[in-house]
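Side project, low priority. Logging it here so it doesn't get lost.
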Amino acid sequence: LPVGALWRSSGQDEGGMFADLEAAAVRRGVPVRVLSTGERVKWRDAMLAVLHSGGPLTKKDGINNQSVVARFERDGRSALLTGDAGAAAEAQIARIFPPIRIRSDILKVGHHGSRGSTSAPFLDTVAPRAALLSCGRENRFGHPAAETLAGLSARNVRLFRTDFDSDVGFELLPGATRVLRRPF
């Protein structure tokens, strides 16, 4: 895939992964940017607000909870991109930001739908109409968890899964959100 830029969390570099990614980016002439909580990236017709990046390590899913969580807005529509963040990061975001800054039309489900992500309070705050869950078919971790699927179903969130639907994308348009399937 062509890469225009590498944006990463301000979190700790687990096992040199960030260093390896940054070295590969530099070799290919791809600019690297570390995103910080509260930062905003603006384009002519869109904005990305970083709600979470880095932070203190927690005992459970420490590195995952250092993921970038960002809200993308365009044409009156929004998508919340949660990376591998779990319940600890979700709770921190909910403490810092008012619900209006978190509520989104589309939710990228955190940490592949693991048991430790996409908590009920977070789902209630985000109140998505649709969700994208990225996980591999028959993956060794058993993702997504039944609890996560039940939480989404109980809230009537339309779910798109990469293990079933393969490549899925969303286009945020004025007055509508369009689902895109390969080829885009």
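Brief comment: DSSP finds six helices and eleven strands in the chain.
Revisit when time allows.
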